[in-house]
Amino acid sequence: MSPNTLAPNDILTDDSYFMWEFNARMKLARKDLLDHVLIKPEPAVLRENPGWKVADMKALAVLVKLISSTYQCMVRECESAFEAWEVLKTFFAKKNLHNRVQLRKELHEFVMETGASLMDHLLKFDELCLKLGAAGDSMDDDEKLVLLLGSLSSEYDDMVRIIEAHSNVTLLDAKEMLRREYDTLQKRDKKETAFTAHAQRKEKLMRVFKANALRVAGMDTRDRSVVT
């Protein structure tokens, strides 16, 4: 891929602001233009340093190139890269507040159904956490651990108590312990399924044997009555 080729996350869209912001910072930094969106220049600086104004227009041009046509109208009247950056940040901060509230609610209501796959549950949990982080609302691992343990089904109550009893267990450690517990439960379920299937086959064979025995006994009775 050419250095000038834009990746999908490089273009600002409805739900990609925080990912876009990081990528935009990196692009500006590579061109030595990052200060133009982080520092609001004083009028005196602009008067005394004409080069700053030229570089600022370059920074503004970089930003506009990274914005979809939907949002370019928002920065059309901006006279500096800093002003355009602040307009976008203010707009998306307000817009993402609703998304953050909804994602927080979804995360707190996220529960695992009995018998469901733990691996699928962990993937969905991580996905929700990533979405929340992308919306600008990051959680530390301790909070994630509390939410994860609270979301598990009753099958994992014993393992949850073990994890809770050790205050130094990290989120990564807890996930690994839960995966091992999941493997144990899976093996136990397979054994129980095999045992149940074996018992059912044995019971079926016994029923067939009894039916055959009764049929033979009935035939013997009829044969004796005929002879008599």
Terminal-residue CA separation = 100 Å
Return the string of H and E elements. Answer: HHHHHHHHHH
Sheet having the most strands = none
Helix content: over 70%
Q: How many whole angstroms does the radius of gyration measure?
A: 33 Å
Low-confidence stretches: none
Label the overall shape: elongated
Strand content: under 5%
Protein name: Polyprotein
Pfam families: Retrotran_gag_2
Overview of this protein structure:
- It comes from Peronospora farinosa.
- This is Polyprotein.
- There is one protein chain.
- The protein is an all-alpha fold.
- The protein has two domains: 8-96, no CATH class; 110-212.
- Helices cover 73% and strands 0% of the residues.
- The protein contains ten helices and no strands.
- α4 packs parallel to α6 and α6 (81-108) runs antiparallel to α7.
- The longest helix is centred in the last third of the chain and has 57 residues, at 171-227.
Summarize the topology.
Layout: H1 17-30, H2 35-38, H3 43-48, H4 50-65, H5 69-72, H6 81-108, H7 118-134, H8 141-151, H9 157-165, H10 171-227
Helix pairs in contact: 4-6, 6-7
Pfam family, one: Retrotran_gag_2
Protein name: Polyprotein
Brief description of this entry?
The protein contains 10 helices and no strands.
